[in-house]
Amino acid sequence: MCGIAGLFSKSGSIEEQLGAHLSAMLCQLADRGPDSAGVAFYRDPAPAGSCKVSLFSPAPEPPWRELAGELAEAFGAEAGPELRASHALFVVPGDGDAIQAWLAERHPELRVMSIGSRIEIYKEAIDPRLFVERFELTKISGSHALGHTRMATESRVTTEHSHPFSTGLDLCLVHNGSLSNHNRLRRMLRHQGIEFQTDNDSEVAAGYLTWRLREGDDIETALRGCLDDLDGFYTFAVGTADGFAVLRDPIACKPAVMAETEDWVAMASEYRAIAVLPGADQAEVWEPEPGRVYSWDRAVVA
User: Fold this and answer.
1) pLDDT tens digits along 146-162
2) Are strands 257-260 and 232-239 parallel, antiparallel or unpaired?
3) Fewest CB atoms within 10 Å of the CB: 57, 91, 187, 280?
4) Residue 41's beta-bridge partner residues?
5) How far is CA 169 from the centre of its chain?
6) Which residues contact 132 (CB under 8 A, 6 or more apart)?
7) Between β-strands 243-248 and 264-268, what pairing exists: parallel, antiparallel or unpaired?
8) For 221-260, how does the pLDDT look when each residue is reduced to its tens digit (9 = 90+)?
9) Which residues pair with 89 in a beta bridge?
């Protein structure tokens, strides 16, 4: 099961209501994944030389204010925290890898959900409808976003094991399916310096893309590499700072539908999640072909 939703805005009106529209899509997919839910929004870029850092704490009363003081002392943190349920968003001057290493050493009890110039990831092991309400997703604006509702098959039901997974700056992945060679790939990627926080197979797919991008591939080339190197069934939706991309495995085992209007591009596991969008009845609708990469970015819509 699991449900995937993605929305890319092509107009100001959609950007302003991006959170409300994505929330409606997630609620339509709630019964595909009642275990947990998560979103990645791309919005409000950090100032040059700084990173947005989204953090999760399992503690009932996280020490966010104290952490803000420590970050200010270590890096001269510019803003934060912006609190959203069990998560906090900081804007921190400096290199993303250095910030993540500092957090791992000083605060191993915290989980880094995402780091980058535009990305914000929020997720929780609760019903998707409650997740939408608790995280006030309807109030969020942005250029594009991905969402996921999870029915666990490969690992435990925890916030950390929920989607999206981010293993590189401004990169995230949501996945419907399962990978059979993820343990071997995880070992190989760790030798290449890719770090993982869970034993989830989907996080390995995100790590694989991070590695391919680091080696010089663009996102479309990196995704095409999945067709050779990843064994299993999958529909992937991948977010980057500029846009998002979609790939189904060569036999298209997992469902997916896409649609486009003058105002937006959307993808979902089922059409009912797209039907709630404005103008859906006038959209061009199609089923993505197996083994083909579909991508959109701020410069080119293709």
Assistant:
1) 999 988 776 688 888 89
2) unpaired
3) 187
4) 120, 145
5) 11
6) 23, 26, 27, 37, 138
7) unpaired
8) 999 999 999 999 999 999 999 999 999 999 998 999 999 9
9) 54, 82
